[in-house]
Amino acid sequence: MLFTLKRTVFVALLVMAALGGPVLAQGGGGPLANEPELRGLLQQEMQALQEALATISTALPQGQWHTVAETAGQIHDSFILQQQLSADARKTLHQTLPEGFIRQDQAFHQQAKKLQHAAESRDAELSLFYYSKMVESCVSCHSRFATHRFPSLTAGSSTLNSH
C-alpha cells in the first residue's frame, strides 16, 4: 500500500508537468502530447496526489499524526527532479516544463516536508497551516498552468499569489 502510494504520488507530480505549461493554458495538446506513455503515467499520478491530499485532510482533524507525517513525507520524497527517470524522460521534462512550474513544484514539496515535521511534532496549528499552503499551491498552479482543465481558476479569476 505505501509503496503504491509513493509510486503514484511520483506519477501524479509528473502529471502536473504533463498537464501544465503555457501550451495547455491555451488549449493545445501540452508539452508532453507526443509522449503518450509518460502522459498516461502522469495522469494516474495526479489522481494519486489528489488521494494523498484527501488522506491528509481526513487524518489531520482526527489527530492521526503518523498518517499525516507519513503521507506528507511521501509527497515530499516524490519530488520530480529527484526521481530516477530515464535520461530521455528527464531530458524531455527539463525541455518542456516552464521554469515557473518547476519553482512552484519545488515550493509545494518543501511545504510537504514542513507539514511532515509539524505533524511529527503534533503541532495541529502548524500542520493545518502547511496543509493549507499546499492546497493553495495546487490552486495557484492549476490557475497558471492548467486552465484548460480548470477553467474556473483562470489567472484573472484567482486571487492567490503565484510563486
Structure description:
Helix 1 crosses helix 4. Residues 1-28 have low confidence and may be disordered. The longest helix has 24 residues, at 36-59. By secondary structure, this protein is mainly α. It contains seven helices and no strands. The protein is globular and about 45 Å long. The N and C termini lie far apart (33 Å). It has helices at residues 2-19, 22-25, 36-59, 65-77, 87-96, 99-120, 124-145.
Poorly predicted parts: 1-28
Helix content: 55-70%
Q: What is the percentage of strand-forming residues?
A: under 5%
Overall average pLDDT: 73
Oligomer: single chain
Rg, Cα atoms, Å: 15 Å
Q: State the shape.
A: globular
Order of helices and strands: HHHHHHH
Which structural class fits the helix and strand makeup?
mainly alpha
Give me the number of helical elements: 7
Distance between the terminal alpha carbons, to the nearest Å? 33 Å
Biggest sheet, in brief? none
**Count of β-strands:** 0
Task: Outline the secondary-structure elements.
Elements: H1 2-19, H2 22-25, H3 36-59, H4 65-77, H5 87-96, H6 99-120, H7 124-145
Helix pairs in contact: 1-3, 1-4, 3-4, 4-6, 6-7
What features would you highlight for this structure?
single chain; 163 residues
